[in-house]
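1st attempt posting a full record on here, be nice pls
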Amino acid sequence: FNYSSARVLNSLDSFSKRFQNCIIFVDEAEKMIGRHSMDEDSNFDGYLNEIFDGVSGVTNAIVVIAVNNLARFGAGFSDRFVSLKFELPNLTERREFLVMKLNKLQNHAEVLVNFDEAARETEGMSFRDLEKICNNVFYMVLNQQQTITNHTFSDAARNFKTIYGVASIYG
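the predicted structure (as tokens):
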């Protein structure tokens, strides 16, 4: 456990005491404080538990922590929070998202994408993953590509999978 992680935790603790009745939101908490939390018996987990027990006991602060990998925290720490899991988008949701995003290109390029096929190709991906793929397609349009086809979309998806791996990096 290092100084910067302790500083983050102390800041959360002092912030909640200074601004009682507040909501504290920590996004991607495992990147800040979870990387040191490998098992329930670690000193760091003990410190995390002490801080968050103190926050709820002394103030009326609500702490919301968003994590992509809950396994980075010990069970004792995870038990102190109500967990809500957000599932990856299903086929219909991915299709609707791709239609919404890629049809924004209609004024700049002809969009000839089979959205059912594109949605199937993105199985196991998050909306963030889909956003990155659509951004790659947008850059292709900026580079004067006039028609967006399944091949264009597949190239962008393949490029994403090559960089980040076959499965979603957030799933």
